[in-house]
Amino acid sequence: MSKRKPIKTAVFPVAGLGTRFLPATKAIPKELLPIIDRPLIQYAVDEAREAGIEQMVFVTGRGKTAIVENFDIAFELETTMAERGKDLSVLEATRFTPGNLITVRQQVPLGLGHAIWCARAIVGDDPFAILLPDELMIGQPGCIRQMVEAYEEVGGNLISVLEVPREEVSSYGVIDPGESVGVLTEVRGLVEKPPVDQAPSNKIISGRYILQPEVMRTLEGQGKGAGGEIQLTDAMARMIGTQPFHAVTFHGKRYDCGSKTGFVEATLALALEREDMGAEIRRIAERLLRG
Ligand code: UTP
Q1: CA distance 41 to 30
Q2: CATH of domain 9-258
């Protein structure tokens, strides 16, 4: 049995403005946009549950109430569906054990690092996971489960990475790698959007983390970084060298659903894989491509 503190809490920052999807996200939070019939936040919550995480912390902001309502019991809807003999199992994943969904408020979206810091009282002295719901990670097992398994081996801080073709690295944050053993790579540094010829690796940082609670103290009073926002990457970079830091190479697919093309790609890819519609979507796509 592992002696490490288990990862029981996940933080989901959902207070961003979602400006890249306007006007769709004027009244609807980006995190509720569906890939086919499941909102993005649902995929992230399911991924955390699969990893044995019980306590979910949503960092919300103005106009984001519907995200929390998504996980309430919809009394009228459910009663009417039951009366009409409809199958309620489609709502199963939206149910939480009472007390396991906690919301904290980020009044002003000052950046991802600031959003995480807003959850400090809930996180307390335990290591915790972070999932960015607009990065859809599809794997078997899921990304956070792969990371929890790695965490049980090495502890410390972990970030998930994916390998991309070298010419694409300048759109992402990449790691400066040390020694690699299996899926684990020691992290020596983090570099934001490096020019291709100066990139220390082709391992890009994706939106899943397991961090030690000390990151909250590192974020405390941290100034603004890139884009005028309080950046999580800056806090992590400051922790490297003071605590163990590893990257876990994710085996699976990542879709950047914070961008329109990534969102469409995810919709198409997941639809093609579904038993109930894959064949039909393939026919439609082929017809459209023929023009
Ligand atoms: P993004 O960088 O995608 O920002 O945030 P955004 O505001 O949501 O979207 P755009 O760029 O304006 O289109 C990544 C994740 O971090 C959360 C977002 O809700 C998203 O889930 N976030 C970001 C916060 O919770 N607070 C912030 O201050 C910034």
Answers
A1: 9
A2: 3.90.550.10
